[in-house]
Fold each of these.
Amino acid sequence: MKTLQIKAYGKLEDNLSFADITKPTVSKNQVLIEVYAAGINPIDYKIVEGALKALSKLTFPAPIGFDVSGVVIEKGANVTNFNIGDKVYSRVPTDFPGTFSEYIAVDANVVNLKPANIDFTEAAGLPLTELTTVQSFNKVNLKSGDKVLIHAGSGGIGTFAIQYAKSKGAFVYSTTSTKNLAWVKELGADRVIDYKTENYLDIVKDIDIVYDTLGGNYTVDAFKVIKTGGKVVSIAGEIDEESAKELGLNGVIRFILRLKSKKITKQALKKSAYYKFIMMTPSGNQLNDIKSLVENNKVKPVIDKIFAFSDAIDALVYQKSGRAKGKVVVTMK
């Protein structure tokens, strides 16, 4: 079968190539998915560039890709919740990537039937984004009436997060560029802030939750806008001590991370605030919850651009450019 592989760490254009490998076989707890589409996420190009080497080093050539939609064509002896021919979607386990392939074997417990009212391309753009957002907001107990700030409202994460927060009854602030103001408003944001002409720090005050998708100074500044006792949940900021333990990092790395997160810890203490870095965990059950939201038209996938499988490297370069308005997807069929 044809697959995209990482040859070495470095530039996307120089360190990715297509290869022909043996089609995978399923274990007793897996399903074999014929891939129809694969979603692209920032983690994909970050892995190629070596940004995550400290957490997990690759052995080359290495597979790439985590989001997938397709059809079940084989299943293991223990799999009872899927049938041959089922249309499914999944965020595959972090240790077993490879969705930029014609076929992939996946543990059945991280797979779910795709929403019936969307196509394979739309379904492939959902899993990592939706699971990350749901788990982030679950961690801070998002509830109706909460005031939430979501940065980068036109991005892959932002477009889903706005819709999800609104489905829970939250009041949503979101930042975006001038050209996307009306569109982000249509997604459901209550107050859209044009970061080119406005400073969100002057507008957002005493809110309950910041969903930090940008990291850096945005993580530190989150504590300026939350109320005393507020919550900051991040997918791009520094790793907190609790998350470091959950990741099984050794004492030396955890010490380094404590030093790096010192400024955040100090700000959190000042505000009696809660801070948590989220590493998403694949879950078929949570995909089912999102399936219901999509089928009930509470949220909808937003696709920016679709690439053919043969152009997957170009798709990753485009994702890295930061111009995507929604999700970028590669289609095999």
Amino acid sequence: MSKFETILVEKHDRVAILTINRPAKLNALNSKVHVEGVAALEELRNDSEIRVVVITGAGEKSFIAGADISEFAGQSPVTQRSVFQNKTLFNSIDSFPKPIIAMINGFCLGGGCELALACDIRIASENTKLGQPEINLGIIPGGGGTQRMTKLIGEGKSMELILTGDMIDAKAALDLGLVNHVFSSEDLEEKTLNMANKISSKSPIALQMAKEAIKTASKSNLDEGLRREIDLFAICFSSEDKEEGVRAFLEKRKPDFKGK
């Protein structure tokens, strides 16, 4: 694995933990984080041993407090549009073929909330604060916040959060469906890794097919989604993992999936 200035990557068997490592800046996203994060994910995409990725932020105060606002100064509409049209960390997460879990502790604001929204599953600590406060700077979310939040929790609540710029706590986020689970700060890592390890025990091929099918559901109509689901379901039948899964079921044992 390459060495990065703003990203840490640890591997725990079949699970990789990718940490945004700028605690002095509350892990704010700057251009280097985007470049290094994209590069780190590309390496993990090609690592056949890794089946699940967990993304978190360094320190106890913040998951990601937002974008590094100092980089906004002096930006023109053309340059800023160009930045976000390039391959951002948000889009790299969204298109990543393996499951990604956001492990959220502390502030999860602006670009941090958008990054969490791009992940497949979000698990938060009780001290988490989430929000899209861009409106307070005279701008709107630009990393997918208006789109992914609306698809996840609906138009009305997304309007409220984005137009007010208010922060909400972990319980409110759970009630809205913005996060999947909430645990104490002490239990957050253990509970998150328990889920990551459980998912990583499944067939990597089936995981990829399932993720693509679910993503298709939010980007197409029902007929298109059903057609794609059938195709992906059929592809699973070409794998050795499918044969292993069926044999293990009939033999009443746990399957040993190889990703083939």
Amino acid sequence: MFGYEGVKPRVQRIDTLTVSHNQQSAARVQAFIDGEWQQQAQPNTALLSIPLGLSKAQITRQLNKILGSYDEQSRILPNPRAKYPLLGTRQRKDTLFRYLAVVWMRSAMPRQALWRVGARAKVSDTYSPELDPKARVVRGEQIYDREVLSILTSRAYNRGIALAENAARGRFPSYAMPEHALQPNIHELWELVGSRRKWKRSQAKKSAE
């Protein structure tokens, strides 16, 4: 649904059928069908038996004969297309989630200064580690780092909102703020983030049981 279009079809060995391992072969064929074949978008696939004692020439001749028995329509590979393909070809996952993390952190700290939000969300590799989000601001203290981090945090927040707004419209990722974009209710957003965390913890607990 969201950008992943599977793996390219390829010729591969599924198993080697021998007298001592014939009971396991059916399971490996089923594993191929449930796994790799699904990921390749279920192309028409010939399951062949190739005795390993045959010469390469014999195998090639017989294989060509078998493949020649299929019509052209059977040889057309599927062309999977995601319903919501990713925009562009160069994606930086860490950057995307850093912007979204700023939005989440802002919803947790709605009344805090932006530099505190940026320090907590680690929006900047340069400035975030230098500032303690809980520190008191002393009058007359050098505030350059805080001002820069505030600017970076504001930019990251706006981009995070644009990412979410565009994703809701089926475009991801895009930093261009769409027309009629809505500013989220930060308090409601934090409630959603909290409920998601509770759900993840419940799923992890079920998996551990």
